[in-house]
Amino acid sequence: MRTLALLSLLIAIAAVTFALQNSAPIAVQFLGWRSVHTSMALVLLITFSFGVLFGFIVSLFPAIKNMRKRSELAREVKQQQHENEELSRQLSEATHQVEVLQTAQPQHYLSEDTSSNYPSDTSTNY
């Protein structure tokens, strides 16, 4: 942004310098319209000003489009953050319910020696 402002300032200085060095009186014709003799500096400055104004107006449309897109994305981010918070709350609640169920029911674990819990089948011959 800073570079753009510096470049714009340099272009404006160059335009003013050019206009001041070309100050001879001229007559301008445009689509059948004819002006009185006016200095070339004034014509150039007016033309330059219209160019800057036109460039500004043309650049407004993409800027407005970008602002709308940014607003839409910010709204979407806010919605997803809300959804994320809700899912985190549900996960926390489910984790708490699992902990409550685990503490309410006694844990039955198999003993380390599992062979004593099952009858051995030694009569089967393969």
UniProtKB/TrEMBL annotation:
Q: Which residues form the Lipopolysaccharide assembly protein A domain?
A: 21-84
Segments spanning the bilayer are: 43-64
InterPro entries recorded for this chain? LapA_dom (IPR010445)
Q: Which Pfam families match?
A: LapA_dom (PF06305)
- UniProtKB keywords: Cell membrane, Membrane, Transmembrane, Transmembrane helix
Which spans does this entry mark as compositional bias, Basic and acidic residues?
74-88
- Region feature Disordered, mapped onto this chain: 74-126
- Keyword Transmembrane helix part of the UniProt annotation: yes
Domain of life of the native organism: Bacteria
Q: Name one GO cellular component term.
A: plasma membrane
Q: Where is the composition biased (Polar residues)?
A: 89-126
Q: What name appears for this protein in its UniProt entry?
A: Lipopolysaccharide assembly protein A domain-containing protein
